[in-house]
Amino acid sequence: MTLLTPVRPRTAEIVWPRRTGDRIRLAVAVLVTLAALVVLSVTRPSAPEASAPPPQAPPAAPGLEAQLRTYLQGRPTTGAVEVRDLVTGRQFGYRADKAYDSASVIKVAIMAATLRRQEQAGRALTTSEKSLLGRMIRDSDNGAASTLWNRLGRGTALDQFFTDAQMTHTTAGPKGYWGLTRVTAADQVVLMAHLARPSNLLTEAGRAYARTLMASVDHTQDWGISAGPGHGVTVELKNGWLPRGRHGWAVHSVGHVQGAGRDYLIAVLTLDNTTESKGIATVEGVSKIVWRGLAPA
Q: How far apart are the C-alpha atoms of 110 and 108, rounded to whole Å?
């Protein structure tokens, strides 16, 4: 068998001219070419690095709706929740379109309707209005709420306000019974969004006035969605509670929580609580779940 000898690849050769002058010119040309190659190798920009992917929105709170459902189904109560995370734009709810008697949470709408009427009239709040609003929100004064309700025009005027605010599942209570206004957790969050963010319903001055009152309620009113948030967190809230005969107590809490990397609107409505204190405990249990669930990553 014949063995084939591998052929060694030929290296490039430089053919030198015979005459000295030509040799010198060729050598100079070679040196110039080598110098150019060195410069190119030093100055050639490196390939651009792949750009980093755009930051992703935080993931949805893991199982937050499931946690709320499990918690409320395990409580001796009937409950509804709506949460709007203003950081991510996501919403979470449980039976959020179920209607409940409002109790005192309707006072937020009475306040907003009063501020809207004042702004539309192009005038400042009167001393009387300021006093009534402060007592109604900070102390949950029912007499102040009734006075403002009547001045607005009772249910007819409030129903128009609900239409303007796009609170499509809210119906004013009959006659002077503002506490029997039918509300949903979803609509309560819609109302809170009008106060927390720019809206054609109220000017920034009106929204700021409302938020200031809700952030400074009397300490006896400071429960509900304030459970969970710690120091340095702003909680703007309004609570409501009302005995409902065979359905026990209605206990509600609505508002806006901002701080510690969180910014969200929340409404918690409950019924069939055997006592007011048990209703408060249920509402605060929901608040703590939401506070933990919306912790920044």
A: 5
Q: What is the pTM of this model?
A: 0.79
Closest CA to 264 of 219, 294, 226, 230: 294
Please give the structure tokens belonging to residue 44: 């050639």
71 near 286, Cβ under 8 Å?
yes
Cα–Cα distances in angstroms (integers) from residue 10 to residues 7, 13, 138, 155, 172, in the given order = 9, 9, 96, 101, 98
Q: Residue 252: helix, strand or coil by DSSP? A: strand
- Give the DSSP letter of residue 171: B
Query: Are 276 and 249 contacting, i.e. CB atoms less than 8 angstroms apart?
Result: yes
CB 192 within 8 A of CB 83: no
What digits encode the pLDDT tens for the residues 87-137? 999 999 999 999 999 999 999 999 999 999 999 999 999 999 999 999 999
* Contact by Cβ (8 Å): 268, 208: no
- Separation between Cα atoms, residue 121 and residue 18, nearest integer Å: 105
